[in-house]
Each structure stands twice: as structure tokens, then as C-alpha cells.
Amino acid sequence: MAKTIFINLPVHDVARSTAFYEALGFERNAAFSNEQASAMVWSDTISVMLLAHDFYATFTDKAIIDARTTSGVLNCLSFDGREAVDAIHAAARQAGGTEPRAIEDQGFLYGGAIEDPDGHIWETMWMDPDWTPPVTDAGQGDDQ
Q1: Which of 46, 60, 119, 128 would you label with 12, given CA atoms 20 to 30 Å apart?
Q2: Which pLDDT tens digit goes with each residue over 44-94?
Q3: Does the record's keyword annotation contain Iron-sulfur (predicted)?
Q4: Does 45 lie in the same domain as 80?
């Protein structure tokens, strides 16, 4: 079985959040969705679970953060090209999201960040598959 990841996000309005993620290209899995939760499929191995706050609270005793004012995690979505990054940013804006970080073009790396209506941030990126980090005299990439 392939390893999979399910990202659980607390949301104020499951229907509104479902519509936002559908506008970005996620597909709702009806078998695991109801008025308390929407299972939003990104790929065969990645799903985002949009959980109403009261339902989310059944999984933890910790306080639920307000993602508009507190950062708890930054997730990143990768894309096959610059055009796909541009498209998801446009879809996010049109669906009521914001861009806390505009798209930057660093040549080998292209991306920014989008934010859903509840404040959850998704970084976006495309990386040139042919790019390799420059080698320094020590034989390691510059970031070492």
C-alpha cells in the first residue's frame, strides 16, 4: 500500500471551505464527507480533511488555533509548471482566498502562497527538475 497523508484542517464553514478547495482543483470524496467534514482529494496519496470546529475538537484536547492570527503549519503544494502555479493563485483569489506571499520567480524556483478563507496557508511551488545547487569549494551546495 502506498504511503498516504491526510491533512486535517479546522474550518468554520464546511460547505464554504469545500467550495473553495473544489475551485482549486481538489475533488470531494463523498464516501468520507458529511455536514461535519469534507474529504478533499489532491492526489492518490494526499487528502485534506476539512473538519468543522466541533468535530475537529473530538480529536484533540488542545485549543484550536485561529489560523488567521496564529500559524501552526505551512503546507506546500508542488506543480508541474509555472502556469499551474499561476492558475491555482488565480483560482484561490476568485474563490475568496488571499495571497499572503505573491508569486516570486527565482529562475529555478517559482511560487508563492495562498490562504483559504479560514487562514490556512498553502505555499505553492514549481522547481526546475534540471536544476542542481551550485557546488562550492568544499564540494557542498551553497546552503550547507
Answers
A1: 46
A2: 999 999 999 999 999 999 999 999 999 989 999 999 999 999 999 999 999
A3: no
A4: no
Q: Which structural domain range is residue 79 located in?
A: 65-144
Q: Does pTM top 0.90 for this prediction?
A: no
Clarify whether residues 2 and 17 are in a common domain: yes
Rg (CA), the chain: 17
Res 133: pLDDT: 83
| Diameter over CA atoms, the chain | 58
- pLDDT at residue 2, rounded to an integer: 86
H helices present in 74-113, as ranges: 82-94
- Tell me the C-alpha distance between 102 and 99, whole Å: 6
Cell digits for 139? 564540494
88 and 103 Cβ atoms separated by less than 8 Å: no
H-only helix segments in 26-69: 53-56
Last residue of a domain, one of 33, 64, 95: 64
